Amino acid sequence: MSVAAKTTEAPVGWAREGIAERVAQDIPNGSYVNLGIGIPELVAKFVPAGRTLVYHTENGLLGMGPSPAAGQGDPELINAGKRRVTMMPGAAFFDQATSFGMIRGGHLDLSVLGALQVAANGDLANWSTGADDAIPAVGGAMDLVAGVKWVFVMTTHVTKEGTPKLVERCTYPLTGRGVVTRVYSDLAVIDITPKGFQLVELAPGVTFDFAQERTGAPILRPTH
Amino acid sequence: MIDKRFASAREAVADVRDGATVMIGGFGEAGSPIELIHALIDQGAKGLTVISNNTGTGLVGLAALLRAGRVRKVVCSFPKTAGSTVFPDLYRAGKVELELVPQGTLAERIRAGGAGIAAFYTPTAAGTPLADGKETRVFNGREHVLEHGLRADFTLIKGRIADTHGNVLFHRTARNFAPMMATAAAVTIVQAAEVVEAGALDAEAIVTPGIFVDRVVHMPSPALESALNEAGASYA
User: Alpha carbon of B100 to those of B76, B79, B125: distances in Å?
Assistant: First the structure.
């Protein structure tokens, strides 16, 4: 499955599904979880057998189920990405103030989000590159990172151009300060600690140096 | 006797004046009161401030109201949904003002406005550009941002079922902002697919109590933004 890091062109580390599967392993049974739009949505496919998670979508549903078949479903039963979803037994609907009360009030266990940049101090930038012609849009990201107990970031380690997304300090506009708990990339699992990036685990076939060379700040080696 | 029914969307929005602030329910197309928005376009009020989570897609509903040039300012959390071109074009051309608000802060500002709370402190957006120029204060070692309650002249929302007293139930994730918006406007207008006599609804199940609702319009088969767009519809 993995390929040794012989050249920079070779596929190395986890594919998107591999990252999602690795994230899913760390989510305890019974957790209330908000999965961000895009790559984080893949996590739901890989929840280990025997664990039941309750998915929250901030537009007003707890107990969100998978998307229905194409053309099926209810156009007013949607997720935060405005795609049709289903509901699981025990689901509940609620308004936006209640939904964000769950988020801001610390009732949700986990938020899994994408990132443009994550800094060694836990700062997250994931809503804007600050480009002049961009239409600014933030949705619920700032509320999620401000309120949810654990914030997991799921991201490629570098941009398409090869620029590190794990950096000393974010240069893009922030979503939140010091909010990220842990980063899952295609190359590694990395905790945010008071001392900065702390390696938890390397993806198969990835060496420490390979990951460090692609990171914009020092990574601390595992202490054990 | 109380009967809040209005015979048509046209009559329900007839007194919206130029420069009014209008809250419009919906998250994407879920809960968007398309017929009330179209009636507002026909009515002609301009210079509106619209408070709504999104800015519409295609050339119908919210997007059509914007395209008709009736909106001076949008207060919104996510104005660039897929299929949304009208707002981005107007914004880039400098023809509409945007106040970008985090989604949960938007919900709470509306809730506060309706509940008589002038302002509140939230940790959301502390240390980000969306807190620029706002008062901050530290509680329990953590920075919070002062956010002000929002009120409006009119609220337009969509319900599944309403009664003649204005009690409303919603449909699934179409509920979203409607219950808060109903509380925060001088005049709240509901379009409902079904309208029943007072007493017909289970009082335990009512989501929005009738005290928050002023006008009820029966709209038995409300249009959906996606269906209109797939059909190539363009309003006004």
Answer: 5, 9, 11
Pick the CATH number of A16-50+108-220 from 3.20.20.240, 3.30.200.20, 3.40.1080.10, 3.40.190.10: 3.40.1080.10
Q: In a mutagenesis test of the A interface, which of B85, B124, B169, B170 is the best target, namely the one with the most A β-carbons within 10 Å?
A: B124
- Cα(B159)–Cα(A130) distance, integer angstroms: 38
**Count of other CB atoms within 10 angstroms of residue A75:** 17
| Residue A213 bears catalytic tag | no
Distance (Å) from the C-alpha of residue A158 to the closest C-alpha of chain B? 23
What is the dotted CATH code of the domain comprising B5-117+150-219? Answer: 3.40.1080.10
Cross-chain CB nearest to B173 (options A77, A135, A139): A77
CA A159 to chain centre: 16
Q: How are beta strands A61-65 and A86-93 bridged, if at all?
A: antiparallel
Q: Rounded CA gap, B202 and A48, in Å? A: 41
Computed over its alpha carbons, how large is the radius of gyration of chain A? 18
The span from the CA of A212 to the CA of B5, in Å, is 67
Boundaries of every domain in chain A: 16-50+108-220
Domain ranges of chain B: 5-117+150-219
Distance of alpha carbon A29 from alpha carbon A7, whole angstroms: 39
- The residue in chain B having the minimum alpha-carbon distance to the alpha carbon of residue A95 is B176
List per-residue pLDDT tens for chain A, 224 residues long: 344 444 455 578 999 999 999 999 999 999 999 999 888 999 999 999 999 999 999 999 999 999 999 999 999 999 999 999 999 999 999 999 999 999 999 999 999 999 999 999 999 999 999 888 889 999 999 999 999 999 999 999 999 999 999 999 999 999 999 999 999 999 999 999 999 999 999 999 999 999 999 999 999 998 76
**What is the 3-state secondary structure of A32-74?**
EEEECCCHHHHHHHHCCCCCCCEEEECCCEEEEECCCCCCCCC
